Amino acid sequence: MPLRRSKVLVKWIFENQHKFQTVRCCSSSLRYKEQLEETSAAPELVAPAPTPNAKPRPDLTPEISFKYDDLRVSLAAPYQLQPKPEVEELGFGRYFTDHMLKIYYHRALGGWQKPEIMPFENLSIHPAAKALHYAVQLFEGLKAYRGRDDKIRLFRPELNMERMNLAAQRSGLPMFDGDELVKCISRLVQIDQEWVPHSETSTLYIRPTLIGVDPTFGIQAPDSALLFAVLSPVSAYYKKSRDGAVSIFADPNVVRAFPGGAGNRKVGSNYGPTIEATSRAEKLGHQQVLWLFGPNHELTEVGAMNIFIVYINEHGDKQLATPPLNGLILPGVTRRSILELASQWEDLTVKEEVITMNNLIELNKQGRLLEMFGAGTAVVISPISRVGFLDMDVNIPTMKQPAPVYQRVKDTLLAIQYGHIEHPYARIIS
Questions:
Q1: Tens-digit pLDDT profile for residues 170-186
Q2: Which segments cross the bilayer (predicted)?
Q3: What is the value of pTM for the model shown?
Q4: What whole-number distance in Å separates Cα of residue 151 and Cα of residue 392?
Q5: How far is CA 100 from CA 71, 118, 183, 189, 388, in A?
Q6: Which position among 125, 142, 249, 299 has the lowest Cβ density within 10 Å, counted as fewest Cβ atoms?
Q7: Which of 390, 388, 380, 322 has the alpha carbon at shortest distance from 353?
């Protein structure tokens, strides 16, 4: 080949390398398995739970998706393995396991490429990637729990996949078959299973992320994307007061989401702008922000959690309430599970309803407000004992209840997640 043609070819490959699927090959002499091809069958999965009065799930599965059967696995060499921290040192999201999952999407190459599990590594993306400039990205959060029987379980991962595809649809990113991603993630957890804490106070957090990696400044749907998943052993998310509750600050001058926006999708642009408001709340002695909306100061979310209250309603019954999904609120997996489980308890009325700060204050003055708590994957259940609002503190008697609902909810969820009771919400993977 003439030298000029060789230079042109090299230049073309360099300029278009982002369009090719990355192939990782370790040349170290310490590598004990080279380009291991996994041919084992998919992990056994438990059927998802039937949900009472559940709305039909939207069909978000595209015609073309990556497949678990095409998964390639490259195991880390001994020198690439990280020391495992003690449970009491974990914190939240500070440590990461030995492997990660990567799946590229390139429209020019037919769409989704073959999924690959590889040793944990830094990402290399173009400085003009859309994810860096226009927040063309989204993420999910779920956990793997080591049960009392030493089996590892996921909690309703199909709901995370449904929500992830809805966020992809909203962001112009490619959608995929959620069941195939669950299988790939399950294999990743199996490989790094010793990172799942042998504890019922800690878990393995799973963070699937999808980003646009096009090296162009055009504000349009990306032609190239990267879906990856990393794992992190975690313990408590919030630092709590001595009684185990948190204090929150309701600032009517800031909003988290607005009608027609993307507040009901798990995209990074919902979270970055909350940091300054959270820092101000912390300086005032609170752990998180209670996000309000509108002239009536409607409660929406608290931090990155869904919000619940327990009160005595006008009929004298104990009622569990949470704001309805009106486009401003993330449809939490824990939120949905609480509503479905608690609706089966005969001693509790369960309702989705608009809750305003005036409602909250009035119920508290009348002695009818019993509890307040946040719920989410990271924290499970976080009881709330104080709300700062304008120039007042609203003290919630959450921790003074003889048989609190929040504790009953938490105990039920943890019993399912750690295998103390068999339940279709838990999906055994190992």
A1: 999 999 999 999 999 99
A2: none
A3: 0.83
A4: 48
A5: 12, 6, 14, 9, 41
A6: 125
A7: 322
